[in-house]
């Protein structure tokens, strides 16, 4: 069976770059990339993705999309990912230009094409603004989606920015509400299983000690070290939770997801304390289409995939 084409929608932070590394090492490098504000500004996110693709040897066009949420001002996560969004990772001196077509327009055209030529898989790693803008005026385009794997939200009410909200959803709750209300083949990878998948400092030290040194080793280690520093600074133990790499791993190997909740998911778009919270429509009361939310994972299987990806990539670059 021919492998579907893959589009990655990303806000260009450290874990986004690691997710692209997982895809590259697993034979599922993206065919197209769209960028969105989020971890950093849209311009910085686009530069970061161009640099990441160059380091990983991925040849895919990058289309810049939305630079702000549907409502209100953009937030960012520079405190987590560093001022440049990649923890100061070394970059190639020369990068290709961005593709000329706007990211939202490209998404629409790619989905229109997919409706006749075969479904397109989408991995969404940032705020869902690009997808919401592309689909709210043409919801029929969801017929062009094969799988829509989203990193975002919570399944047990544990946020990573507020007590209730995860960053990608909080950055544009209105966009998330639009996307999750569509009858798309959606798989949500929320924050809690990412915490379950936390990689320890010892595991990370071991893989980089084994891996061949070179440009990719330096790049990937800088990403990892940034998240280790931040985790310790925020009072955690040495290591980090890997949200975007876990979402990429679920796309590559669906059996990593061991527990799935099938239910509609609502997004709190108001509220003083719970804006951006995701809530299961269970028992169903709000008429939302059921989606698949990952609520349990095979942790050893994920770690083997992620750590193996680092070793394989370092071996060849």
UniProtKB/TrEMBL annotation:
It comes from the Bacteria. Keywords: Glycosidase, Hydrolase. Residues 7-303 form the Inosine/uridine-preferring nucleoside hydrolase domain. Its EC number is 3.2.-.-, 3.2.2.1. InterPro entries: Inosine/uridine_hydrolase_dom, IUN_hydrolase, Ribo_hydro-like. GO terms for molecular function: purine nucleosidase activity. Pfam families: IU_nuc_hydro. It is an enzyme of class 3 (hydrolase). This is Purine nucleosidase/non-specific riboncleoside hydrolase.
